[in-house]
Amino acid sequence: MEGIFTFIGAINHSHWFIFMGHTLLAAFITLFLAKAATASMKVVPTGTQNVLEAYLQGVLGMGKDVVGASNARKYLPLIATLGLFIFVSNVIGIIPGFESPTANINFTLPLTLIVFFYYNFEGVRKNGLGSYIAHFAGPVKWLAPLMFPIEIVSHISRIVSLSFRLFGNVRGDDLFLWVLLMLAPYLVPLPAYVLLTFMAFLQAFIFMMLSYVYLAGAVMLHEESH
């Protein structure tokens, strides 16, 4: 935001430079965590390995409830990577002198498009192009002319809802923190940091859950019809 100090902005005041700098920083931290967790794998995990294994087990358990055990494990790399990247991107904005990349629609929209194109690709690959397109018409044939355009609009609206939900919530959290720091600096905002950390986790969780739900709707057409 204009007028807000950032360490990266001290190098260059360009909006795109600041945005890309924080995006690369979030990507570097995410890769660093992954590297630290796998650098010396142990049977009894400790440190970063322990934390990320618990995270992966949580994501896998969440996916099993939505798409089943085999599909949850298959899509775990994508969903877990997105979740960790989004969480790190959310959290760095809580630290004074940094901005959340997720508070920019140019960050959340590409992530949403990755999910959108991937779940449609998986739907076609799993069910065949004809069957996948046919499910947009609904189970009642005479309602197909009405249901098909509604389903198309519904799927396209997922791009807007998924990207703007993440962007809007994180942007609002950042604005809340900036105002709070200006009005009450020092130790007063500490309880807000706990709340904002929880919100950073919650927004990443929602993004992962909805991604699993969209994948389930695309690849489990047979189960859905029953």
Description of the molecule:
- With 226 residues, the protein is an all-alpha fold.
- It has one domain.
- Helix content is 77%, strand content 0%.
- The protein contains eight helices and no strands.
- Helix 1 crosses helix 2, helix 3 runs antiparallel to helix 7 (190-219) and helix 4 packs antiparallel against helix 6 (144-183).
- It starts with 14 loop residues before the first helix and ends with a helix.
- The mean pLDDT is 89.
Outline:
The protein is mainly alpha-helical and 226 residues long. 77% of the residues lie in helices and 0% in strands. The protein has helices at residues 15-38, 47-67, 69-92, 105-127, 129-134, 144-183, 190-219, 221-225.
The radius of gyration is 20 Å
Note poorly predicted spans: none
Total number of helical segments? 8
Let me know the number of strands: 0
